[in-house]
Structures
1.
Amino acid sequence: MNGTEYEENQLRERINNLIHQEGHTQRSFAIAIGRQPANVHQVMSGERHFPRGFCSDILKTFPKINKDWLVFGEGTMYGDKSEASRIVGDTRPRLPKSMSGGHLSDYYEGDKRKLCQEKPIITQFADYDFTLILKNNRMSPKYDRGDELAFKKSTIIEWGNDYLLDTPEGPKFKKIYDEKDCVRCVSYNREEYTDFTVPKNMIFGYYRLVGVLRIL
């Protein structure tokens, strides 16, 4: 094994640690950094070399990651101990039960954050923007009323998965499908709730579900 192969294998090991730490699968990680899952699989299995810009894409997607650790293997994943402690000790907002239609970002990073409860970060989850308490049974039996759900804003949509849609009529938590100019919204409790569509131009944001906290 030459020096370049050794360095690439060490980089693969660090990226695998990152994927595990951030709560991703290799596929969801590939989508998050804007790469084709098949190509990332080839890179991570050693079938091909790392393409140009691969580490840059990771650092853009995960800004808390220490660049020196990722690229050179120096230091720790999240920088020095004080930075790691700051991240663990930070909080995320739990959105209020009643919200007006509009931009969810106003609640978790804008003026309306004061209406939210600040809760310690749930470290078992991948990075997330906010949580909310499910207040209905539309998504049962997969999700129960009272479950705390964690969401992260997403620019890449994996159709057929569970997302929170930010709409003028308020947030809508559904399994979503692409239907040309609309998004079809599906409840798991289909005996009581029928499917409906939302025009894509009426959706302010898509938020991927990254964790569920259930009190048994």
2.
Amino acid sequence: MELSVTTESIHAQVTNLLRKAIVSGEFALGEKLSETALSQRLGVSRTPVREALKQLQQEGLVEIIPRVGTCVAKPTEQEISELFTLKEVLEGLAAGQMAKRGGIAELGELIGAMNDMEVSVKSGNVDAYVDANDRFHAAIIKGSGNGKLQYHFNLLINQLPYRRFVYLTLDQPNRLEKSVEEHRQIVQAIKSQDDQLAERMMREHVRASGEKLMQIMKSELFSHQ
């Protein structure tokens, strides 16, 4: 983890770095975070680290427990279910809104991401697929043209170690091939400017991913709770 001086405040830089580390899965669910260790690692005092952790607590990414310390939040089964329900609604809405907007720049980004996903499937490169998947979903959220939707979606998605969850679901038999076909259907609906179909296809895709994740998490995560 590197920290470079920019025009951002030290607090903002530290918050962004720690947020990224948690969301990407660099820190494990439930892992204890030491203010002293983090400040040494980042080359800053403990004050901006402490303030950053308070901010991340408000975002639902960490838990600050009196007399225990700070830990990476470990979402419960119910919390994951609730978050994926909202994700389904927001991404479905975004896909429908994007379809209405026609030939916008984000459509090119979406098609490019789709092409990269297909290439990665053929080569069996899961890392490249996950990266392309990130760009695919980002293009749809941005392509909605709705700033409030983008804001609330980002707030939502930052409460999940989402990339880790994507890897977990794709590791299941036939899920990679099924996932790419779902993405193809979403692209086709958006290109056809069929907003109702685009919303339905996106909602079904998010629901399928969420259901597969819940099956995995019930056996792997919640068995340890």
3.
Amino acid sequence: MSTPVLDRTAQTEFPVLDVLADRWSPRAFDPETPIDEGKLSSALEAARWSPSANNSQPWRFIVARRDSALHQGIHAALMGFNQAWAGDAAVLIVAVAETAREDGTPITHAVYDLGQSIAHLSVQAHHDGLVVHQMSGFVPQQIRELAGLDERFAPMTVIALGELGDIAALPEPLAQRETAPRVRRPIDQTVLLSA
């Protein structure tokens, strides 16, 4: 049950790559189609090859396919309305930052580098016809306990990944968000200084 992708292309101030302008974060996921393992592997490979300071690669991922106990555990850690829709995603991925080395030395750039890896994952997934939605609304301690994470590993986001579903199946307030105009702060309000 694959749903055609809506035209949600961003109206950019300046030209960008189509894959960037077309990318958006839906909440409507196809609840039946299993993940295409090749596309999932490509998304994770894109994340693996993202840049990091000193090639430290301070990111880890917890990958849970729908109907697994791990998927159910991650879904249970979601907060608020995220639970209303994210369970339909074929995959839930927890993005984890390695915030310190084994000897306890802090990795000060870990969260930045993790963010870059997720950006690469998102762009690759979108390029391959999947949709991605990142969530900060979850209980990190539940994830930490579920995965048995050491204190130096910090769960930062949960990512829903899969094929686009039927927007009409969402609760009304969420369905409205799916078709609302896409907006961003103007570049001149984003760049603090430019000389």
4.
Amino acid sequence: MTVRNSIRVLGLALAVLPGTAFAHPGHELVSGAAGGLMHPFTGLDHILAMLLVGIFAYQLGGRALWALPLTFLAAMAAGGLLGSAGPESWMVETGIALSVIGLGAAVALNVRAPVALAAAAVGVFAVFHGFAHGAEMPATADAVSYGAGFMLGTAILIGTGIGAAFALNKARGEPAGGLMRSAGTVAAVAGVGILTGMV
């Protein structure tokens, strides 16, 4: 599949996403585990970053398949604690957008980073995502159940990224690498759009 076709596929996917995928409204309406579970799915930035973590982990292979997801989840939990104690700032949204750009670029360039370095970078990005989850937690929500919910939602998205990369590789072999890199390129461009407010 060419880059042009990859862009068309992503464009179609974005067209059918609900409007809430581009913002984070309405969190006050759902609290507890259900609200936490839904939260990672309510922002395009979160969706892209977590799928990319899974794809990046698959590209690196070996220990990265468990090290990157677990590091992301642990760092996100720490960020969630910080976010629940303080208001969200523009720096958090900027950090989230930069995570999409950085992870998209890593996938696009098929970066062969040492697992420790890749995990450290993923962990830094995860803190921003966790902070946003914690800061946007409804005041009436139980922090433990809400946190468990958004951790599960995140794990599902990361697992989906790994599973999609595995399925592509199984079905298409070597061409799948090009498709994953094209998807990373498109995601990085989307990250620029998120950063600049165009998306």
